[in-house]
Specification:
- This protein is mostly helical.
- The protein has five helices and two strands.
- Strands 1-2 form a two-stranded antiparallel ribbon.
- Strand 1 and strand 2 form a beta hairpin.
- The longest helix has 14 residues.
- It starts with a strand and ends in a 12-residue tail after the last helix.
Amino acid sequence: MSTIFNQKIDLIQLLRQIPDEHILKIATKSKVDHYAKVLNGRLMFYLLLSGILRTDKLSRRGLADSFSSPLFRTLFNFKGKATISCK
């Protein structure tokens, strides 16, 4: 849970407000998944959103650590063994 402008924001509640169909439609229209092997557009959106809500300072290392965390993988139903690099 994060606070923005003194309001508490719960990641799960926020994600429930954004239908998966909209995210997939934007990913298809923008062709963001054309070269993606591990991080598709939907998963990247979730990773960035959770990173923004969890930390004050977003970094590649922090996103890589979040992506590898069991909580993130369970929350977003990612069953792959793939990891992302912060290089």
